[in-house]
Amino acid sequence: MAMRMADMLSAGAEIVRPLVELNNVGKVYPNGTVAVQNATLTVGEGEFLCFVGPSGCGKSTIFNMIAGLTAPTEGHMTVLGTTPKEARKHNEIAFVFQDHTLLPWSKLIDNVTLPLSLRGVPKKERIEEGERVLELVGLKDYTRVLPRQLSGGMKMRVSIARALISRPKLLLMDEPFGALDEITRQTLQNELLGIWEREKSMTVLFITHNVFEAVYLSSRVVVMTPRPGKIDEIIPVRAPFPRGEDFRSKHEFSEYVGTVSAALKH
Ligand SMILES: Nc1ncnc2c1ncn2[C@@H]1O[C@H](COP(=O)(O)OP(=O)(O)OP(=O)(O)O)[C@@H](O)[C@H]1O
């Protein structure tokens, strides 16, 4: 069976098709806060990268720059071979936040198809795509349900479905599972890895404060320093995908958790 790109990269192969490139990128906010300094990073197509670092080290700022929501004040960056703003215009980047931001009065099918409605996609196509992504996240029987009838984990699934509806090449996830209980969180980690495995070329960048989560999900873990945020170390997790529950109890897993935790304490 052919090795997937993430496996090759975590095994140390060279990135053939860079999807995101940051070259000495810095961000100083207008109030003088130096949020990010000298960030250099190349992300290959199909990778799953987790970002860990203390609160306020600039993780969200890096994501906002990659998404074209705020511009770097230093350095150069490209996303999908163009500027982040341009990549966002082509609907190739999707965002998932911890706060699911669902419309409370809209049924799930309307919530997940909102990005298509805003683009004027015809109803038939919208519904087909909505059903496709709700099925991907295990909610195909809930199309006509309102968000308030769902648990926190289910709301997060809807939020992921809404992000997937545009078939993004790049999925940015900012602490998506931070508010969930441990069991739900682990279930969603497995589901997310399953979706990513199926989508093959989709690249996922994921912020978490949880070192266990970072190791379980990643092909590489990006460790950041306290403010001003710098990329301190990039740790490849050389365990093949698909990863199952048994990975969590392996000696190899604890070793990676130890390595990332030690890097965070530098
Ligand atoms: N719009 C803004 N204007 C000024 N300072 C900002 C702005 N947004 C963020 N900051 C500051 O920049 C620094 C980095 O913030 P950022 O949100 O990127 O960090 P983070 O690592 O994502 O934090 P957390 O883990 O707490 O979410 C922080 O000191 C924050 O207060």
TrEMBL record:
This is ABC transporter ATP-binding protein. InterPro entries: AAA+_ATPase (IPR003593), ABC_transporter-like_ATP-bd (IPR003439), ABC_transporter-like_CS (IPR017871), ABC_transporter_ATP-bind (IPR050166), P-loop_NTPase (IPR027417). It comes from Paenibacillus spongiae. SMART domains: AAA. Pfam families: ABC_tran (PF00005). Keywords: ATP-binding, Nucleotide-binding, Transport. The keyword S-adenosyl-L-methionine does not apply. The keyword Nucleotide-binding applies. PANTHER family: ALIPHATIC SULFONATES IMPORT ATP-BINDING PROTEIN SSUB 2, TAURINE IMPORT ATP-BINDING PROTEIN-RELATED. Residues 20-247 form the ABC transporter domain. GO terms for molecular function: ATP binding.
